[in-house]
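Task card 7
Instruction: Convert sequence to structure tokens.
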Amino acid sequence: MPIGRPKGGKNKKYSYEFKLKVVKDYDDNHLSLRELERKYGVANSVIRKWLKLYNEGLLEVGRTHNRGNKFAALHTSKSLSKEERLELENLKLRIENERLKKGYTVKGGGVNKEYVSILDVNMKSSKN
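Output:
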């Protein structure tokens, strides 16, 4: 019996309660990942991820990946507290500092943004 979604199908979304039930079953009954896969119909790689998140205390959080550009809040009308705005600006400056340490600068903006070696920029400007 193949586990997974059919081509073009939607990804399954599991509730926190279901994830916790699977993780507790693993801990309490000492079932293998393969047994849990058969019992609940969830791929063992997904169960392994839930176990890792549970052990790190992040299972309750839900989604662990970031969506969108967190720096967009600086330029939109989103209401940020003064502390949140300063934290974002500080993080943005730290990232730019690390990029400059590695010898890159940004050319363009938005979708057309590209990272160019500072040496290339200096060589082009010295030729002119």
